[in-house]
Design a protein that fits this description.
The structure is a homodimer of 426-residue chains. Chain A is an alpha/beta fold and 426 residues long. The first copy, chain A, folds into 2 domains: 158 residues, Alpha-Beta Complex (Aspartate Aminotransferase, domain 1), CATH 3.90.1150.10; 243 residues, Type I PLP-dependent aspartate aminotransferase-like (Major domain) (Aspartate Aminotransferase, domain 2, 3-Layer(aba) Sandwich), CATH 3.40.640. In chain A, 40% of the residues lie in helices and 13% in strands. An 8-stranded mixed β-sheet of chain A has the order 2-9-8-7-6-3-4-5, sandwiched between helices. A 3-stranded antiparallel β-sheet of chain A has the order 10-11-13, with no helix packed on it. A two-stranded parallel ribbon of chain A has the order 1-12. In chain A, helix 1 runs antiparallel to helix 13 and helix 4 runs parallel beside helix 5. Chains A and B meet through helix 4, helix 5, helix 9 and helix 10 of A and helix 4, helix 5, helix 9 and helix 10 of B. Chains A, B: InterPro entries: AspAT_Ic, PyrdxlP-dep_Trfase, PyrdxlP-dep_Trfase_major, PyrdxlP-dep_Trfase_small.
C-alpha cells in the first residue's frame, strides 16, 4: 500500500476513479447509519436495569442520617451518595455536592452563577467588560456552547499527548480577564488524551491573574476504561493544588450518566469548602434539594467504587470491540496511505480522527450523502471553527458492532476519496 | 366567653395571670413540637410507595414516541408526561415543558433567564436600572426569596377573599419597571384564598407597560383539595388571556411534589408557543434533558387526571382532620375572644392566622419558648417584613394529629396570653 503523498498524479487519478465508483455503489444502498452520538448503546443500558429493582415499595427510604428520602430536604445530597460520588473521583465526601440528573446542568449553573452573581464575592462576570475562557482543542462542544452562550470569549489552547499545552495556559492566565478553562482530564473528549502528571501539577500550580479564575475539571470519563489491564490514572488535582494553596481554583464535575442511565443518573460537584459554601448560598434559592430517592437508588445498586468499577468493566466488554474494530480499520486503510491520524483511546467515548488539512467538512458532507451521519464539522472547537478543518469526532458506542462496521467502511472510503480529490486539486 | 376588647382591666389581669400559670406549666413539659413545615406527613408519602414498583427491571422503558427513556434526549419532556401535567392544570399538552424535580427550580430558572438573558429578546433585567415585582401578601416566602436574591424590588399587593386587589395590580403595572407578579391562584400560600373569576379575568386582561411583564402563576395546589364535595375551581388563565391576545403574559407552574414525593416528583411549566421556544432556546445549553424514567414512573402510576384526583382524595382523608381540628380549636378558643382571624381553607397546605396587630413576633417567640416551632415571623412577606406584625403561617400536615393537637393547644394559649399582655400594655 502506497502513501498518497508518494503517488503519481496518474495513480491518484486511478485511485479517485475507483473510489468514486465504490462511493456511488454505497450511495445506491440508501444506508442510514450514525456515528455521531456519544450515547451508550442499548446493551450498556440493559446492564443497569436491575438498578430499577433495588428501590421498591418495600424499601425503607431513610438515609443513614435519618432523613426521610421521600420528603423535602437536604440541599447538597445524602451522605451515602456523597460517598459514592467522592469515591469515583477520589476526594473527601465532605467536598461533594450531589447535583441533579446532569453534570452538564451543574456546569452550566456554575458558569451562570459566576456570570450573574460572581464567584466568592468577586464581581459578577456580566458586569465586566470582557471575560475570556481557555478551551483546549479539540474539546467538548457542549462546554464551548455554554461559554459562547454567555458571551464569553473563547481562546483555543492546543493539546498534545500530555493534555493542554501548559506553556500556552500559563501565559494566557496572566490576563486578568481570563476567568476559566474547560478540562476533560481523563480520556478527553474527543481524543481520549490522559493528562500527564506534569500537566496536572502545572494546572495545580497555576498563578492566574484573576482571583476568580477557575479550572472546570470535567472528569466525565473517570471510570470509563476500555481495558481491565490498561487503565489510565491521573493525579488528584485537589491533592496537588493543596500543595500550592490553590484548592479554591478548582471545580471538579462528574456524573453517573454513562454509568447508569443518561438523564436518570446523578451528578456531583467537588470543590473546596469555601467554594461549596459559595455555591450553596445561591443554590438554596434555586431548589430545596435534588432527587434523594434516585441518589439512594444509585447507592443501593452500586454500593461503592468497586461496584462501579465492576459495572464499567461489563460496559467495556460491550464497547471495546467497537473501538478496536475502528482502530484496526483505520490502521489498515488509513495509516498506510498517510491520510489521517488518531490516537487509540484507553477509555472514554470517542475517537478523534484528524484528516488531511481542509478535508473534514467535505468528508462529513460526503458521509452524509452516503447515509452516514457524523458529528458536525468543527464541533470540537469553539465557535465550531476548526482552524485546520481536519478534526472529525467518531462516536462508536451507540450503533451495534455490525452497523458500526458498515458505517466505518463507508467512512474509510470517503476519507480516501476526499483525500485523493484534495491532493489532485493541489 | 367574652371578647378581650370587652373585658375590664381587672378581668384582663386575671386572665393574664391564669394564662401565665398555664404557660409555665406547658414550658415545664419540655415539649418539642413543630407546626412550621409545609411538608406532607409520612402517611401521605406511604400512599405513593406503590409508584416505586411500576418501573422495574422488567419494564419496557420506551416512550410512545419511540424514545428509549434510559438514554439521552428529549429536552421538554416525554409526550405521556406532558399530557399528565397538562391534565393537572387543564391546558393543551403542547403548552407543557416538563421540568426537573422541582417547580421552585423552574421558577428560579425562569427569573434567572429573564435576569441575564431577557425574555423573548427584551433587555435582560440585569441591564436595567430598576426591576420591580408585585407580591400579593401574605404569600410564599420562597417566591419572595428568589426575587430578593436577584435584587428585584418587591411591592406588596394586598389580598382579600377574591385574591390580590386588582385595582392595586392594574395601577402598579403602569410602571414599566414592574416586570412580574407572583401568584398562587388556588388555595394560596398561606391563606388558602381561591382567586375569583373576576380576579382571573382582570389578570388575563392586564395591559402592563412592560412588554416583558409576566404573571408567574404558581398553581402549586391545583389538585390539593381537602374535601370531595367542596372543591374550588378557578378559571383557566390561558383561556381567558387568549381573549385579550395576552397568552404570552403568563408562565404557569405546577408539580407533583406534594402529590407523589417532594424532591422526587416532576414539575411542569405551561407557556405560550413563543415563550416555550424562548425558554427552550436557553434550556438547550443547560441540559440535554430531565429524568425521563421518573416522568414515565409518574405516568405509569397515576395514568391520568382521574388517577391523580383519586390519589389526592386519599391524601385529603389523612390531612383533613388536622385542618379541621385547628379550625375547630381556633373557632372555640380564639374567635369568641376577638383576638384573631383566619380563613377556613378548602385546600392547600396552610392556615394563615392573623393575630392582633403587633403580636405575631411575640406569639412565635413564646411558642418557641414553650417548645413549639412556628414559621418565622414575617415569612409570608417580602423582606420578611410583616407591616402589621400579625400574620402567622400554620402548617398542619407534617405532625401527627396527636402532636398537632398538642401544639395547637399551646399555640392557642400563647395567642391568648400575648393578646392579653398587648391589651394591658395599651
Amino acid at each position: 500500500m502506497k502513501k498518497y503523498q508518494e503517488m503519481t498524479r496518474e495513480e491518484l487519478l486511478a485511485e479517485q476513479q475507483s473510489l468514486q465508483a465504490e462511493f456511488d455503489k454505497i450511495k445506491a444502498k440508501g444506508l442510514s447509519l450514525d456515528m455521531s452520538r456519544g450515547k451508550p448503546g442499548t446493551e450498556q443500558l440493559e446492564l443497569a436495569m436491575p438498578m430499577l429493582d433495588v428501590v421498591n415499595s418495600k424499601t425503607v427510604l431513610k438515609s443513614e442520617n435519618g432523613t426521610d428520602l421521600r420528603n423535602y430536604g437536604i440541599l447538597d445530597g445524602i451522605p451515602e451518595a456523597k460517598r459514592l460520588i467522592a469515591s469515583m473521583i477520589d476526594v473527601d465526601p465532605e467536598m461533594i455536592l450531589v447535583y441533579g440528573n446532569s453534570s452538564l446542568n451543574s456546569m452550566y449553573d456554575q458558569v451562570a452563577r459566576a456570570y450573574y452573581e460572581g464567584i466568592c464575592g468577586h464581581t459578577p462576570w456580566c458586569k465586566l467588560e470582557k471575560v475570556k475562557f481557555l478551551c483546549p482543542v479539540p474539546g467538548y462542544d457542549r462546554h464551548f456552547a455554554i461559554t459562547e452562550h454567555f458571551g464569553i470569549e473563547m481562546i483555543n489552547i492546543d493539546m498534545n499527548d500530555d493534555g493542554p499545552l501548559m506553556d500556552q495556559v500559563e501565559e494566557a492566565v496572566k490576563d486578568p480577564s481570563v476567568k476559566g478553562i474547560w478540562c476533560v482530564p481523563k480520556y478527553s473528549n474527543p481524543e481520549g488524551v490522559v493528562y500527564s502528571d506534569e500537566t496536572v501539577r502545572r494546572f495545580a500550580a497555576l498563578k492566574p491573574a484573576a482571583e476568580d479564575f477557575r479550572i472546570f475539571w470535567d472528569n466525565a470519563y473517570v471510570v470509563h476504561h476500555l481495558y481491565e489491564d490498561e487503565q489510565a490514572e491521573i493525579l488528584n488535582i485537589f491533592d496537588e493544588a493543596k500543595k500550592y494553596g490553590n484548592e479554591d481554583m478548582i471545580f471538579e464535575f462528574c456524573s453517573t450518566s454513562k454509568v447508569s442511565f443518561p438523564g436518570s443518573g446523578i451528578a456531583g460537584v467537588a470543590a473546596s469548602k469555601k467554594n461549596l459554601e459559595d455555591i450553596k448560598s445561591q443554590l438554596t434559592y434555586q431548589t430545596i434539594g435534588f432527587d434523594k430517592i434516585n441518589q439512594y437508588r444509585h447507592v443501593a445498586f452500586f454500593k461503592d467504587r468497586a461496584g462501579i468499577d465492576a459495572h464499567m468493566m461489563k460496559q467495556a466488554a460491550i464497547i471495546r470491540p467497537k473501538f478496536e474494530m475502528l482502530n484496526d480499520l483505520l490502521s489498515e486503510e488509513i495509516a498506510p496511505r498517510g491520510i489521517g491520524n488518531w490516537k487509540k483511546p484507553l477509555g472514554g467515548y470517542f475517537i478523534s480522527f484528524e484528516a488531511l488539512q481542509g478535508c473534514a467538512k467535505e468528508i462529513i458532507a460526503k458521509c452524509k450523502e452516503a447515509g452516514v451521519t457524523m458529528t458536525g464539522a468543527g464541533s470540537p472547537f469553539p465557535y465550531k471553527k476548526d482552524p485546520k478543518d481536519s478534526v472529525i469526532r467518531i462516536a462508536p458506542t451507540y450503533p451495534s458492532l455490525e452497523e458500526l462496521t458498515e458505517a466505518a467502511k463507508v467512512f474509510v472510503t470517503v476519507v480516501r476519496l476526499v483525500s485523493c480529490e484534495k491532493m489532485l486539486a493541489q
